[in-house]
Structure formats: C-alpha cells, structure tokens
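G., before I forget:
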Amino acid sequence: RKEVEQDPGPFNVPEGATVAFNCTYSNSASQSFFWYRQDCRKEPKLLMSVYSSGNEDGRFTAQLNRASQYISLLIRDSKLSDSATYLCVVNELGGSQGNLIFGKGTKLSVKP
Amino acid sequence: SAVISQKPSRDICQRGTSLTIQCQVDSQVTMMFWYRQQPGQSLTLIATANQGSEATYESGFVIDKFPISRPNLTFSTLTVSNMSPEDSSIYLCSTLAGGMETQYFGPGTRLLVL
C-alpha cells in the first residue's frame, strides 16, 4: 500500500520557537513532493514544493532525502499565524497527473 | 492560480437521499479532481474528471455511488448517492494550475448524513 506517514503531533510551541516536521513515503518511484497548509475548517493550500537540493522560503525550509524517502519542513521564528495543520504530499506520477497522496497532517499550535 | 467555488458549502441530509455538489473554476482547466476528507483523516482522491470523457475512479470508489459530470472546462459535479452516515465528510474539488503541479482546492462541502 502506498502511504505517506507524518509525525502525529500536535506540536505546541511558543512564539519564536523553531519546529521541524518529518514525513516518510513508501513509494520510491514518487516524482515530486510538497508541503500544504490547512487552516481549521479551510481547504489545503500549497505552502511550498520540495526539491532535491532543498529549498528555503523565508522562515520555511524544506528538505528531501530520496535515499531514505524522507521529507522535512523546518519553521524558524514561529508566528501565531503559523498555527495550522501541515500536510506532507507526494505526487506519485509527476507532471500534471495530479495523483497526490496526502499524509494525515501534523497540527501545529503556536502560543504567545 | 485558480479560484474555485463549491456549492453547497454545507448540508445535512437524511440517509438514503442523494446530494449533488457543484464545483466552478474561474478558468478553463483540463483536469478536475474530487477528494474526500473524513474527520481526522487525510485527503483521499475519489476520482479524476476530464472534460469529454468518463471520470476515472480510484480504488474503493464507484460510479454508481459517486456519479460525476464534467460538461465543460470550468465546471463539474459530484453526486453522493444513497447516502449513509459513513458518507459524512468534507468533499473537495480541485484542479491543477500555474502551469505545473500546483493543485488548488475549493473551499469544500461539509456533509452530515443523519
């Protein structure tokens, strides 16, 4: 069975903390990888794609280890507005096939 | 990007009835997808709807239970037929946009079956 597994959470952290989420995927043929953010009672929205070389977008850093089939998301200097559920997403077919496999998500709660 | 709207946003239905969910995209798109997100669970793909062809269903989902229409490049409907309480879920429509793999989602339809 093809799966995406994430840290169960929830993560409760103070403002300004650094927090890391991990994700593993079972299908070694997976083509592309993403982190989505889902706010409470809202639809998922793309946070960032994950590239083999690792990539950074402001306070967010994503890394991919294909050999270990492992993806991570690091959030530095956490803000209250970062509170959400973070979904690890794997596209097994690549390109525009849209066959996304979603993890169950890790809930982050940033406290004042 | 793509802006997606769904109707209804929520509904409470009696078992044995059917509900049709509408999805409208603000631009023409080739592929539209229907997902289900049950409480505390990840999103699960129900089917892929391409204009001009029959929808492709994922394992565990069948056309009789979830008939889909795709009459044009901006619109799709998903019907949840002969509903039972186990169908209570959030149903999300999505599409690909931005030229690559970014998937945009509608706001979802929250369904409660009594």
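The interface with chain B takes residues 4, 32, 34, 42-46, 49, 87, 91, 94-96, 98-100, 102-105 of chain A (CB under 8 Å). The CA atoms of residues 22 and 72 of chain A lie 5 Å apart.

More on Monday.
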